[in-house]
Design goal:
Length: 152
């Protein structure tokens, strides 16, 4: 059930002179009692539930305008770094990361450069592992195979 449907139900029940607690119980706590109380106050003042203004602290960083700026910046061909983007837009780096992750549903990553290993390097790595294993066994440690329930 969408919030508009819940608002319409509360509006019709309030016009039928039903109490707040009864409305709350009939909605099975789909909306909080304080929300129903606020909506009923709006109904008595204006006759409708008008949510034209947002309640709570105003948005400063994740505004539609900033989200659009970030989106436009991502459309360019150059790679985007969140820190540089934060410097370009007068916004904190954490706010830019929130815009990228929560609003634009993007995942950030750091590109890692792996060294190119030749066959000689790979052989050397194997030799280092084997020598380390020999030292491990010489110290008196034992290596046992992993036992699982189905194998016992």
């Amino acid at each position: 059930m969408k919030i508009k449907d819940v608002q319409n139900i509360v509006l019709s029940k309030r016009q039928n002179r039903e109490g707040l607690s009864k409305i709350f119980r009939e909605l099975n706590a789909a909306v909080g009692l304080s929300t129903i109380k606020r909506w009923c106050q709006m109904i008595t003042r204006t006759g409708t539930i008008d949510l034209s203004t947002l309640t709570g602290r105003p948005r400063t960083a994740r505004t539609r305008n900033n989200i659009q700026k970030v989106k436009d910046r991502l459309k360019r061909k150059k790679p985007v770094f969140s820190r540089k983007l934060a410097i370009e837009l007068p916004t904190s780096a954490s706010s830019i990361r929130r815009i990228l992750k929560l609003d634009l549903k993007l995942k950030s990553y750091k590109r890692t450069v792996e060294p190119f290993l030749t066959d000689d390097h790979k052989e050397d790595e194997g030799a280092v592992f084997e020598s380390g294993l020999e030292q491990f066994l010489q110290r008196g440690y034992h290596v046992y195979p992993l036992l699982r329930r189905e194998n016992v």
